[in-house]
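Re: your question from the hallway

Yes, I did run it. Sequences:
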Amino acid sequence: MTDLHRLSIRELSEGLANAQFSSRELTEHYLKRIAKIDVQVKSYVTVTPELALVEADAADTLRKAGGANVLTGVPIAHKDIFCTQGIKTTAGSKILDNFISPYDATVVAKGKAAGLVTLGKLNMDEFAMGSTSENSYYGATTNPWNLDHVPGGSSGGSAAAVAADLAPFATGTDTGGSIRQPASFCGLTGLKPTYGRVSRFGMIAYASSLDQGGPMARSAEDCAYLMNVMAGHDAKDSTSMNQTVDNYVANLNDTSVKGLRIGIPKQYFNVAGLAEDVKARVEESLKKLEDLGATLVEIDLNMTESYVPTYYLIAPAEASSNLQRFDGVRYGYRAENPVDLMDLYKRSRSEGFGAEVQRRILIGTYALSAGYYDAYYVKAQKVRRLIQQDFLKAFESVDVIAAPSAPTTAYKIGADLTPVEMYLGDIYTLAVNLAGLPAINAPVGFDQNNLPVGLQLIGNYWSESQLLSVVHQYQQATDWHTQRAAIAEENA
Ligand code: GLN
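Structure:
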């Protein structure tokens, strides 16, 4: 079969179960595509063909023996922030260029236990700091819809790989939008779960109180399959919640759009940088949801202007603390010929970290320093609580909240935005992480340059099933999620 890459996860699962193709055939198919097409997309930092084929053969053997699960033998690729035993894990940084983890992240281990076959590791902004994937030591990934544009970030490799059909689905992480924004830029569905839903064990930390892993795929249905693997309590992550895990696939039809109250935050649609095309496509998608029976309710989210400054204090503060461990001593890059210990620290970190990471370490260290702690860090924490309360109040009168995922479509590579201009592009995604809420991106059309536009739906705590279900209903009635970039149509 030449078009295995066009099959959904359910179709892959069924095809494997009915012996229409083997996991080896499927895996070889994807490896061939990666070898040919990823030269242009540059979504993988590391491809692991030998290992993938060993896992594929093991999956086929298990299936013949009658021990297969629903996903046994289905390929996946992981964002290079998830530790993989025996395979390099870089987090997009030079400082981890030689790092091979001695253990698997829980998300990776769960994937293996479910029988998923690992194709490799995907590019990302260094330590997940960025919105374009250009902040990677390994070079920029391109957007499959237009190779002169970025795929978004920080999970840009994950988004580009899926959008170019170089992986059927992928893991991502979202600290301030890094699943939803690249999903939006690449025309995919991506879910940022409630904080505590997915284990952070073995996921290299950026800002621990905001980081959350989640699925990136073509459809809500495909995401649901991966959520069934990723979600759940983990004793190895103290912030992972012991909360009942839904069967996200079984629940796909459980929420009816009929009668669903969708909150439309007034403030969100008056943001200065909101592109006309994005606004138009998002409004059309809301109209469609209205046609399907939803009610649109105007709401207030008064804290909107505080999102960017609050996040860009808290996230760098936590990052400056988390990144202290990269000191050139225990693991990672070490500067050559240091004259003394201080020189070793200074040069290992100056040579090992890129400019954006260094900028955040400086901002974060400043915000946490004795003289400024109350004025910046503590104040930001107080505002964070107000932002959360704003959402809780809104959820008293609506079921979900709608917004664009990003104010624009994908930027051009090398657009050379200032850091602040770049940070302002995160306006629609940051608050969800500050409040710990779940949210999903769904593709809802294209701008005049044929670049994808995304709708974001934000849910109350633990409402992942509801979000997936609503997007699933929308996707049953529309075909935006089935559109493919020209490069994905190419055969290997
Ligand atoms: N763009 C945001 C940042 O640079 C969000 C990144 C993320 O979610 N990892 O911090």
